[in-house]
Design goal:
The chain is built from one helix and six strands. By secondary structure, the protein is α+β, with helices and mostly antiparallel strands. A hairpin with a 3-residue loop joins β2 and β3.
């Protein structure tokens, strides 16, 4: 991976996504951080560097599905760095991804709270 040239801070997250590529089909993955211009992900396969992939975040109860193009800027051993291709989409993606991560966190806290009440 080389020297980082990131201008904006990244936010650590854990959100399930899929990646679509005409030659590779669909791969599952998890975003592990997101920033204004891109994201890093764990990927079930190897994404080719310089390929444009469709990053797909599935719909939830509070958020519609999101699909946007992203350029693979680095790829190594089940991980990849992605740069969002369009700035307006990048900002929308960041808001939706962070919102989805917050929903997941709230669901986990709610589930843990229910388990605590049942045990007590």
């Amino acid at each position: 991976m080389g020297l980082e040239h990131r201008l904006n801070a990244r936010k650590s997250i854990e959100v399930a996504v899929s990646f679509g590529h005409p030659a590779l089909g669909t791969m599952s993955g998890r975003l592990i951080d997101v920033g204004d211009g891109g994201a890093a992900a764990r990927v079930s396969g190897q994404l080719p560097v310089n390929a444009v992939v469709d990053l797909v975040l599935t719909a939830s109860a509070n958020s519609p599905a999101l699909q946007l193009p992203a350029l693979v800027v680095w790829s190594e051993q089940g991980r990849a760095g992605l740069m969002f291709c369009e700035y307006n989409q990048a900002l929308r993606a960041q808001r939706v991804i962070l919102s989805r991560a917050q929903e997941i966190g709230n669901e986990r806290r709610s589930h843990a709270s229910r388990e605590t009440r049942v045990i007590a």
